[in-house]
Every structure is written in C-alpha cells, then in structure tokens.
Amino acid sequence: LNSGLGLPSDSGLLVKAIQTEITAAEQQEKFWEDQDGFAKVEANKQKALDALTTGEHGAKLATFLEIRDRVEAIHQEFDKAVEEKELGEGTLDYNQAQKIRDDRLGAISQEDPAIFAAVTTYLDDIRPPFDELTDQLNGQMQSEELSYSIAGRIGMAMTPALRPLGFDWKIGTAFIGAFAAKEVFVAQMGIVYSLGESGGADQLRAQLQANYTPLTGYCIMLFCLISAPCMATIAVTKRESNSWKWAMVQLGGLTAIAYAVTLCVYQVGKLFV
User: Which among 84, 111, 138 is the end of a domain?
Assistant: First the structure.
C-alpha cells in the first residue's frame, strides 16, 4: 500500500496507524461507551494518530484514514438498509440502494484515485484475512481457557461415562452449559471448536460433521430431549412441591433414563453404521 499512498516502500507509518487503532479497539472492549475509560482510550488513540498524521508524509496517511472511514460508512449504511428493509438481491429496491452506494463511492474515487485504490485494496484484500485470523486465534484462546475451566475439567472427568454414548469431553462440557438453558448447547460447542465472532452455523456444522457421525448427532438430540430440564425448571419444581426431594428425583431420574436410552440407541446403532 505504501506505493499507492506515495510513501517510501520501507515506511512503517501506515502499519503504526493501524496498530494504534487495533490496540485502542482492544482496550475499549473493557469499557462501556459511556465510561470514562472508553473516552480516555479514544483520546489517546486520536492523540497518537494526530502525531502520525502531522509528521513527514502525514498528509497522505490522514487522507487514507479519512477516505477509509467514509468508504466503510457507506458500506455499513448499505448493509444496514438491506438488513432493515429486507431487500432481496436483484430486486428493484436493492438495485437502487446499490446504485446509490456505488455513486457515492465513485464520487470519492474521483477525489484521489490512488488513495481510493489503496483503501479498496486494504478493505477487500488485506483486512478480511487479518480479521479472520484474529477471530480464529480468539476462538482458540477461548477453547483453551474452556478446557482448563471448571466446566472443562468436569467434562474431561465425565469422559469415561460419556464415551459409551458416543460423546467426548467437548460434548460433555456443552451439556454442563446446557443445564442452565438447553439452547446454550450450540453456542457452547461453537466456543469449544474455536469459532470466533465470524464463525457461523455453517462453520460449526462443518466442524461437527468432520468430528462426529450422524448417529452421535442423533444421540445428542435424544439425550437433550429426555434428560433433566434446565435449572429454572428444577427450581420451579422445588417451589411448587415445596421440597428438594422431587426436584432431585426429577433431575436424577430423567438423567438416568436419558443415559440408558441413549446408551441402547448408540450401541445398537453402531451395529448398523
């Protein structure tokens, strides 16, 4: 990008600016937007960027950052309009919104074609792989932390009992999270398999298909269906019966039935698959 910005090939100016923004974004994640810490980080970031943009070749960097922000804003407005108005690709409204976006981008490109080309290269070719790698690393960190958490250790300790059902420690860990609310099971599996913010249902599905058989998937659904309900239901049972006895009977009994049924289904199923 340096050549497109008219910077020396060995200049680290652009890299420093991007690193400053990334570092600030990471620090701001620790605060709410209305907290003083958030504003302080923003002020420090702006101060650092001002120092970079007022030095040698700073004008080119300032123009790059300004055009990049405008281009990003235009794309975000387009994406927001498509989502909010549910515009289908190829429809008249979609094409009209797309034309407005392209016209606005075209106007910006006329201001400084070289820097606009550099911005396009950065947004289309450089940042997406970086964001994807960052998400993967964050996901791996979450997965590693989970394996050493209390839930992860309990899941590993449960492995000998889960293996006859076709389950491993990862599934066991997800079941622990699902005790709070069964819909958490899918999200927990996403964390276990290191899917970052950009990891969606398709990626998780591909991971599960690569690691488990359809029989295991069926057994997971069967166990979730029969096993003890979520924690809130157990609490309601205790309140309505005015006794922990029936709540524990519900918890232990349904879990035992789910284990026995799933065990039979998995072991018999292995004979045919």
Answer: 111
